[in-house]
Design a protein that fits this description.
heterodimer; A: two-stranded antiparallel ribbon
């Protein structure tokens, strides 16, 4: 992935929130969410304060609220679970609109929804205002093991390459008249996954060799988290291996 | 599938965070011993592969589809340590960049899906491999068995965590029954897909499959010639 692309959730901008150091953002997200999770769900007004805080940060970031709202769909399966809660929980029951619901379940559903939603909105705000390479530098500063940050860096860098490879394989399948409709089609899709593994693994080997030929000795040099230095080594290996589309 | 923020209470979240950190730390050391300086690019690309395969849709029927979780698959393909690293990194990216799984629940998610799911899947695979004949053709079948067990095992571990730090009053036996029943079903799908994927890799590049190494080691060279065929 090139320097200017960013990930799909990133919303380009130059606000205070965008410019804030990434390690500060990650640390405050973690602390904020720990506080939210530790808050008793019966302190209703406090959740209003949390929400107001988040809204203020989003307003300061100048990311359109609709942008965040649209991306909250990741929460849907979990909302369904929370809505089931009043029906399956035990304890005293109350009648709401003719339905017999468990009081504790209602409270639990509220707690799950409130905390889960705050978590999703807060994480989306981080994702929308932080470039992946800044995020990597931030994690490095937060003393996440160097090796882990490197792995993360390779994953983020090659995400678009590999998903694009997968897309080409899908186009190749479909242009031959294939469409996955039932369980009978699993072997075909699974073979695509197998081919994707072989290609990813071999790409990893080529990247490693390309790095070795550029003097890699096992760890990127200290200070390698600056964008120029991290990008220099492995992205140069990518062009040599981005022509597999025609034998999918 | 991912546990969101607020599902388990703060002490449980922190405790699983410590477990996850220890597990990933150990995996880092072990994978490095195995892969040496190839660790970063290899684990990175395998993580990308796991992430990408989770986007492949497998139609179940009636317009719905499921996707692979990939824990047992990663373990069989690249070995348990690199597998743990890769799946953990996938979960980290999903929490930080995609808001899938809460950041306070990251430790829980890594513990359940990466540590419990993957290790159980691997142990079942390796255990069966020990007692059964070492044949390359068996590797996909064993991988399927590992995948089948890994999903309900993670679900059971989740139920255990929920018993300790759950925030909603659901009767535990109901939850355990629902989780196990549902995830056994998911496990069947996971097993079939894992078996098919491993089978397709073993057919083309058995040398890449970590779990096939013991079977490859005992394989003897077989010389086929025209003379032999016509005789």
């Amino acid at each position: 992935m090139g320097a200017g692309h960013g990930h799909k959730l990133h919303y380009h901008g130059h606000s205070v929130v965008h410019r804030a150091p990434a390690h500060l953002k990650v640390a405050s997200l973690l602390v904020f969410m720990l506080v939210v999770v530790a808050t008793s769900r019966t302190w209703f007004p406090v959740f209003g304060v949390y929400l107001a805080l988040l809204v203020a940060v989003i307003a300061a970031s100048k990311v359109p609220p609709l942008y965040i709202v649209k991306r909250m769909v990741v929460e849907v399966p979990f909302v369904v679970f929370a809505l089931l809660m009043p029906f399956v929980a035990t304890g005293p029951r109350v009648d709401v609109l003719g339905l017999s619901l468990a009081e504790d379940g209602l409270l639990a559903a509220w707690g799950l929804l409130a905390k889960g939603t705050l978590g999703v909105v807060a994480s989306l705000t981080l994702a929308a205002t932080t470039e992946p390479r800044d995020l990597l530098a931030g994690l490095e500063r937060l003393r996440v093991p160097h090796q882990l940050v490197q792995i993360l860096g390779f994953m983020i860098r090659y995400l678009d390459v590999v998903t694009e490879e997968m897309r080409r394989m899908r186009v190749a399948r479909e242009s031959r008249g294939f469409s996955a409709r039932s369980v009978r089609h699993w072997p075909v899709v699974a073979r695509s996954a197998g081919a994707l593994f072989i290609r990813s693994y071999e790409r990893g080997e080529r990247v490693h060799l390309a790095m070795l030929s550029r003097g890699y000795t096992g760890s990127l040099t200290p200070g390698a988290t600056t964008p120029g230095a991290t990008n220099a080594t492995p992205t140069t290996a990518a062009p040599s291996s981005t022509t597999p589309g025609n034998h999918a | 599938m991912h546990v969101p923020d607020g599902f388990l209470d703060a002490p449980t979240s922190v405790a699983t965070g410590v477990v996850a950190a220890a597990g990933v730390g150990l995996a880092l050391r072990k994978a490095r011993a195995e892969l040496d300086d190839r660790t970063a690019p290899m684990a990175g690309l395998v993580a990308t592969f796991v992430f990408a395969t989770q986007m492949l849709n497998f139609p179940v029927g009636l317009g719905t589809s499921g996707h692979l979780l990939g824990g047992a698959l990663a373990a069989v393909l690249v070995g348990p340590w690199t597998g743990i690293l890769s799946v953990s990194v996938v979960l980290l990216v999903q929490a930080l960049l995609l808001a899938d799984g809460g950041i306070t629940a990251l430790g829980t998610n890594i513990t359940l899906m990466s540590l419990v799911g993957l290790v159980v899947g691997w142990l079942v695979f390796r255990g069966l491999q020990r007692v059964l004949p070492k044949r390359v053709g068996l590797v996909p079948v064993l991988a399927a068995a590992g995948a089948f067990v890994s999903v309900p095992a993670a679900a059971l571990a989740f139920t255990g965590l929920y018993a300790v730090g759950g925030t909603a009053p659901i009767p535990l036996d109901t939850l355990a029954a629902a989780m196990l029943g549902w995830h056994t079903l998911i496990g069947v799908g996971e097993a079939v897909i894992t078996g098919l994927v491993v089978g397709s890799v073993v057919a083309v590049r058995p040398d890449l499959v970590y779990g096939a190494r013991p079977a490859l080691a005992v394989r003897t060279l077989e010389i086929r010639s025209d003379a032999g065929a016509s005789a």
